[in-house]
Amino acid sequence: MLKAMRTAVTGMTAQQMNVDNIANNLSNVNTTGFKRTRVEFQDILYQNFRKAGTPTAIGTTIPTNLAIGYGTRPVATVRDFSVGDFQHTGNALDMAISGNGFFQITMPDGTISYTRDGGFKISAEGQVVTVDGFFMYPEINIPEDANSIAVSIDGEVSVLLVGNEIPQTIGQIELARFINPAGLSAIGHNLYNQTPASGAPIVGNPAEEGLGKIDQGYLEISNVKVVDEMVNMIVAQRAYELNSKVIQTSEDMLQISNNLKR
What is the maximal distance between C-alpha atoms in the chain? Predict the structure, then answer.
């Protein structure tokens, strides 16, 4: 019975983390470019009382194991990088990636981070930045006398200057993709960092080398599906309740044993 209690505790702990993850998904249902995560579980070690294939005293072999497991544990949070729906904004610097890839962002320490959030702004110096003021990489500077901004599907940025009728190209957006995007490390601010598990970034122009194209005037919304998360939350709650019931049942069985009289 004590083993059953300890095993049930691992189940309750695992489902608590599962609910925490679901809560994070639901809280980011309106976060631009957010990608939902799911928790993966793994069973723990087993205590073998009889191993399959063990010979018996009468010359036969045991056909099946007699083993009891010690519960479960969470081993990974896997991020789903499927493309979310697009929301039309009409803003010139709102961009969505239709397909694979990430925008590159220069961090204050000079390193490069990656994001699917294409809600860019213009700084006081005319540089294209994120809402936190981090520069897009490669840097793009918008002239003061720019009357309009256009971004092609392959990432070419051009502006129409006051008094001119012919657009002028001022920069090229480059995207990065990873062989294992699930290995990226989320650091908040809608940003990800490269890790040894993700592999090195493969950089190129949009619509080339397996990278998605740019859709100007759109934002990619979260790929969280509220109905699915609510169902997952109900399942996790029921699993939590069942594990707590195991603890209660084990306690009742111990109480019965303690009350036995000779």
Answer: 104
